Amino acid sequence: MIASGTSLELQTYHIILHGLCKNHHTDEAMNLFNTISCQKENLEARTFSILIQGMFQAGKVNAARNLFNSILANDVVSPDVLTYTIMMKGLIKEGLLDEFDELFLSLKKMVTLQILLCLSYC
Predict the structure, then answer these.
(1) Counting beta carbons within 10 angstroms of the beta carbon of residue 62, is it exposed (0 to 12), middle (13 to 18) or buried (19 or more)?
(2) What residue spans do the PPR repeats cover (predicted)?
């Protein structure tokens, strides 16, 4: 569909990305992400969250970090509570507690309620 020039809604891309990541096709998911990021002006934090979670599940910690850092460097999309929660869970599962601590400390800039929500999911 994409190759034929058919444009899909962002929610449809989210479903496809989630399915690819869930079935360990993270390289294909990244290729699709690169394609839609060129086509769609308004990516959402959810788009990144799906990919970050997929990368952690596939054991691709560096790829997850790079995606998260690309959100932080991006002025258009901001990480949301879900994105932070996925990052924190992934770092804990990988035993990267120093990185978890750094990320947690950076959350002080967020609203207290959002911090509590993140912690309740970890």
Answers:
(1) exposed
(2) 80-110
pTM of the full predicted structure? 0.81
Topology annotation, domain 10-121: 1.25.40
Do 78 and 68 meet the contact criterion of CB atoms below 8 Å apart?
Answer: no
Phi, psi (rounded to 5 degrees) for 2: -65, -40
Q: Cα 89–79–20 angle (5° rounding)?
A: 65
Three-state SS sequence of 15-40: HHHHHHHHCCCHHHHHHHHHHHHHHC
**Biggest distance spanned by C-alpha atoms of the chain:** 46
Instruction: Convert the pLDDT of each residue in 48-85 to its tens digit.
Output: 999 999 999 999 999 999 999 988 887 778 888 899 99
Tokens of 20: 């690819």
Those residues whose C-beta lies under 8 Å from the C-beta of residue 120, and which sit 6 or more positions away, are: none
